[in-house]
Amino acid sequence: MPNYRRALVLAVFILTALYLLSGPRSPPPITSHRRPTDTPKSDGDAAPYPMSTGRPNSPSKQETRLYPPPRQRGDKVSSNQQPITQPLPKSLREQLQYQFPYDLEGKFPAYIWQTWKYTPASGEFTDNFRAAEASWTEKHPGFVHEVLTDQAAVYLMRHLYASVPDVLEAYNSLPVPVLKADFFRYLILLARGGIYTDIDTTALVSTTDWIPEEVPRSTIGLIVGIEADPNRTDWRDWYSRRIQFCQWTIQAKPGHPVLRDVVATITEDILRMKKKGILKNGKMDKSIVEFTGPAVWTDAIFSYLNDPTYFKMEGKNITWEAFTGMEIAKKVGDVVVLPITSFSPGVQQMGSKEPDDPMAFVKHDFEGKLLDVDPTKHN
Length: 379
Fold this sequence. Notes:
This protein is of the alpha/beta class. The protein is built from 10 helices and 10 strands.
């Protein structure tokens, strides 16, 4: 038993001695293997930056600041800095070009636009127009065909031209419904493109067949037809222009420069007359034909065809002589002009042929009258 106790005491002594001898020690210093002159490299051998932050090692030195200090009040502005100025106001044509850009290589939108007092769904829609209106849907399956009432057209114009207030003011200021109907066709084609056609027109041929297949659609932006080609000495007694382009049926890509010009011209005339106090029925200084009808439309087309901005001129202007007596389509730049038969078949004058002619595309209902438009009246 005593031996057991002596062994136990000895074991405790040995363990205590080992514990005292193995006390805590200071760790050896960590030494770097990098030479004192070594610094992390970056593009351009920039000043050294610690690996754990994005700040310089010596923030007190100006050359090592990541960003310059904020400019204090009273510091002078660099002479290279330009003061902010108000942008110059854009002209009406520039505003229209910005809002409705023209893409020649784009497709003709598949829209058909018409206006009337009532929609075809109304019982008050004129029965005489039902077959004509339906012909456009039948010949153009897949197209969006809209017949807009006068009130619906007002709401649509507010939506499309809210960013061009002069145009919206001009449209809402027109005192006669027929003026708004004229103006609407240019406005809707400028903004949305497609086909505009009067409610009393009948589609004889789909628009896809108006142009020969070999003519790429990516080179055409506007398709118009000849309304009048009066080869007679007294033509001024009957028509406003020697060659008069039709505006009861037009096909266009949105933003076309001709549409932009005619919209700007009509807008300027409306606001001018409004300012003078003569924008009233019977007091305006232009006839309807000259104001919003085929005369201003014809002038806009010829102005475009003779504009060196768009065409390389060779010293000779394009005049009515380039289109008189036409029997087939003619392409000038991105404009295709169709002969009188295409949109005015069966009028029995000025070389127009019958509605069954291969070049007859649209029939306009003149209610049995000859095409004898008085330039002081609307056709």
